[in-house]
Amino acid sequence: MKLNIAVLPGDGIGPEVTQQAIKVLKAVALEFDHTFNFKEALVGAIAIEETGNPLPDETIKLCKASNAILFGAIGDPKFDNDPSAKVRPEQGLLRLRKEFGMFANIRPIKAYEKLLDKSPLKEAIIKGTDICIYRELTGGIYFGEKSLNEEKTIASDLCQYSKEEIERVAHLAFKAAQSRKKKVTLVDKANVLETSRLWRKVVTEIAKDYPDVSLDFLFVDNAAMQLILNPKQFDVILTENMFGDILSDEASVIGGSIGLLASASIGGKVGMFEPIHGSFPQAKGKGIANPIASILSAAMLLEHFGLHKEARRIQQAVEKSLELEITTSDISTKNSGVSTNRVGDFIEDFI
Amino acid sequence: MKLNIAVLPGDGIGPEVTQQAIKVLKAVALEFDHTFNFKEALVGAIAIEETGNPLPDETIKLCKASNAILFGAIGDPKFDNDPSAKVRPEQGLLRLRKEFGMFANIRPIKAYEKLLDKSPLKEAIIKGTDICIYRELTGGIYFGEKSLNEEKTIASDLCQYSKEEIERVAHLAFKAAQSRKKKVTLVDKANVLETSRLWRKVVTEIAKDYPDVSLDFLFVDNAAMQLILNPKQFDVILTENMFGDILSDEASVIGGSIGLLASASIGGKVGMFEPIHGSFPQAKGKGIANPIASILSAAMLLEHFGLHKEARRIQQAVEKSLELEITTSDISTKNSGVSTNRVGDFIEDFI
Ligand SMILES: CC(C)[C@H](C(=O)O)[C@@H](O)C(=O)O
Ligand SMILES: CC(C)[C@H](C(=O)O)[C@@H](O)C(=O)O
């Protein structure tokens, strides 16, 4: 297979971890006889610095001409402390999602046997956990109308959802559940929000198309609690944009390190694959960033194009690296861990 | 001191736990020579059944004539499964908050030594945790305009905040921090939401009035993760309505049981004191509900009126009951636990 892959390394540790994912994808291409072409473009704070725009036209053009996007991370503390800045790195990410219609963000969360003791949660609680979160990604309060009055004393954000927006991501979640434990949990706040009531109604309708999948409901406050009390109860979690943002970061504690979690943002013509950890500016350039999330995102990319064998090989390589403790310091027990590059090399060699 | 206390037991286990709190307050009145008068009124599902209204005028009248409200719980699964019902129990609670201007919801979260092993989190993570959440309670997406088009295909909820709404709850949070560990963490999503950017701006201004208190910021997704990774880093958490709802339920896992967590909703002329657990309909009438959250809410009520000694006595009694394991089954280790009533009796006797 021939794939043109746009690489958007972004800020902080983005470039260094993405480098490892590329290395691994190249090894896969060699081993399985594919052609993967990589082209880089700017996004985020670095794009603002160089062009004044967090998502330059060049970048959009490259992504449009590609089959998939491999994304690093964005964000810089310099902008966080000035939330009223007109141009912010996050806008690049949000516009990318919207522009390319990536309405579904998929985040698998698994408790790796080898890392059970890394979690702040007790082993007995997390052992065996295998959750997949389907977060709606181009609607809701992220993209609704915003306002700030002239005196800067009243602000608002509109959370809006249409039936179609709910349906398309819901179908993906139910389909995923069919090849998993056949359970979808819709997380909402239907006792308060009108949009949540629409979600409940639409999703209940759609569930009828999937008689082999069971559907249950949880209010978001309760879900935030249940994720910690008993994560094993979940299979596929389906939820709206803001709730998905919160719950998926929260759920990352199950895996022992956010440095392990990959994600796919799909729905439009071009899918995007990225680690869920952010730019982690404190670690930038130190060679201590965990590249596994980025490497597993590359595996999700292959999965997306039906290259299951190839994706499986990457996952096996990652599991082997965990088993042999060829890992960065965030998840290493015995020693201070090895470098970002060393983890990438090992996984490359294994393939 | 003479206090008229409106008692709103509500649904599910509400009545049985509230009964214990009343018992304890009566013991305090006797011991410390106060006069507490209790009058009951309807709220929630039971109020809908008896009057068609989740917050009958009678109830409002009683509350207006009282110094404080002791609240049980509301909610009935029969309504949850029908989110499109025109009348729902939650409306009673929301209208009560709005009607009486309870703009600040205060939820203390503590890891009790005796219960460290009850939490799904590891002891080393939670030991020593002592957090107080200040949640804005009468603004944001809970009370903004809602809409549903005629075809029932597009729904919306408006999240709105004014400078004043932010200021008044922020002042309370900073004041609380002054008599604690002198740290306020504002949780928001300023990289996406206009309302969050207003929160950050207004709270940053207010912080100048409290030079002895440090202020830091956390995005809500990160906060949901940090609460589990390292809860000890927090002192006072200040946040808007929806985020506060999610984070405070999530944080309840630290205490080992949601059956321990009390809350106060204050700001207007009449404050309301309630356990944060819900109506827990499955446990109703079985005598297994943990009354401690309701009893500690009664202590918060006394605290609110400056009756510190009295509040302290209740807290001591609760700690003693934990120490001696005179507790309900949710937190009991040795045995199957004692009844709701028995826990109340012990605490009453201790006082
Ligand atoms: C950076 C930010 C805008 C983004 C989001 O909130 O969606 C991030 O937290 C994520 O989850 O990908
Ligand atoms: C019952 C519900 C409306 C309420 C809320 O969301 O505020 C509850 O979850 C709470 O936190 O008190």
TrEMBL record, chains A, B:
<feature type="binding site">
    <location>
        <position position="135"/>
    </location>
    <ligand>
        <name>substrate</name>
    </ligand>
</feature>
<feature type="site" description="Important for catalysis">
    <location>
        <position position="142"/>
    </location>
</feature>
<keyword id="KW-0560">Oxidoreductase</keyword>
<dbReference type="GO" id="GO:0003862">
    <property type="term" value="F:3-isopropylmalate dehydrogenase activity"/>
</dbReference>
<keyword id="KW-0520">NAD</keyword>
<dbReference type="InterPro" id="IPR019818">
    <property type="entry name" value="IsoCit/isopropylmalate_DH_CS"/>
</dbReference>
<dbReference type="GO" id="GO:0000287">
    <property type="term" value="F:magnesium ion binding"/>
</dbReference>
<feature type="domain" description="Isopropylmalate dehydrogenase-like">
    <location>
        <begin position="4"/>
        <end position="347"/>
    </location>
</feature>
<comment type="function">
    <text>Catalyzes the oxidation of 3-carboxy-2-hydroxy-4-methylpentanoate (3-isopropylmalate) to 3-carboxy-4-methyl-2-oxopentanoate. The product decarboxylates to 4-methyl-2 oxopentanoate.</text>
</comment>
<feature type="binding site">
    <location>
        <position position="221"/>
    </location>
    <ligand>
        <name>Mg(2+)</name>
    </ligand>
</feature>
<dbReference type="Pfam" id="PF00180">
    <property type="entry name" value="Iso_dh"/>
</dbReference>
<comment type="subunit">
    <text>Homodimer.</text>
</comment>
<keyword id="KW-0460">Magnesium</keyword>
<dbReference type="GO" id="GO:0009098">
    <property type="term" value="P:L-leucine biosynthetic process"/>
</dbReference>
<keyword id="KW-0028">Amino-acid biosynthesis</keyword>
<keyword id="KW-0432">Leucine biosynthesis</keyword>
<keyword id="KW-0963">Cytoplasm</keyword>
<feature type="site" description="Important for catalysis">
    <location>
        <position position="189"/>
    </location>
</feature>
<keyword id="KW-0100">Branched-chain amino acid biosynthesis</keyword>
<feature type="binding site">
    <location>
        <position position="245"/>
    </location>
    <ligand>
        <name>Mg(2+)</name>
    </ligand>
</feature>
<feature type="binding site">
    <location>
        <position position="107"/>
    </location>
    <ligand>
        <name>substrate</name>
    </ligand>
</feature>
<comment type="pathway">
    <text>Amino-acid biosynthesis; L-leucine biosynthesis; L-leucine from 3-methyl-2-oxobutanoate: step 3/4.</text>
</comment>
<keyword id="KW-0479">Metal-binding</keyword>
<dbReference type="InterPro" id="IPR024084">
    <property type="entry name" value="IsoPropMal-DH-like_dom"/>
</dbReference>
<keyword id="KW-0464">Manganese</keyword>
<comment type="similarity">
    <text>Belongs to the isocitrate and isopropylmalate dehydrogenases family. LeuB type 1 subfamily.</text>
</comment>
<feature type="binding site">
    <location>
        <position position="249"/>
    </location>
    <ligand>
        <name>Mg(2+)</name>
    </ligand>
</feature>
<feature type="binding site">
    <location>
        <position position="97"/>
    </location>
    <ligand>
        <name>substrate</name>
    </ligand>
</feature>
<dbReference type="InterPro" id="IPR004429">
    <property type="entry name" value="Isopropylmalate_DH"/>
</dbReference>
<dbReference type="GO" id="GO:0051287">
    <property type="term" value="F:NAD binding"/>
</dbReference>
<protein>
    <recommendedName>
        <fullName>3-isopropylmalate dehydrogenase</fullName>
        <ecNumber>1.1.1.85</ecNumber>
    </recommendedName>
</protein>
<feature type="binding site">
    <location>
        <position position="221"/>
    </location>
    <ligand>
        <name>substrate</name>
    </ligand>
</feature>
<dbReference type="GO" id="GO:0005829">
    <property type="term" value="C:cytosol"/>
</dbReference>
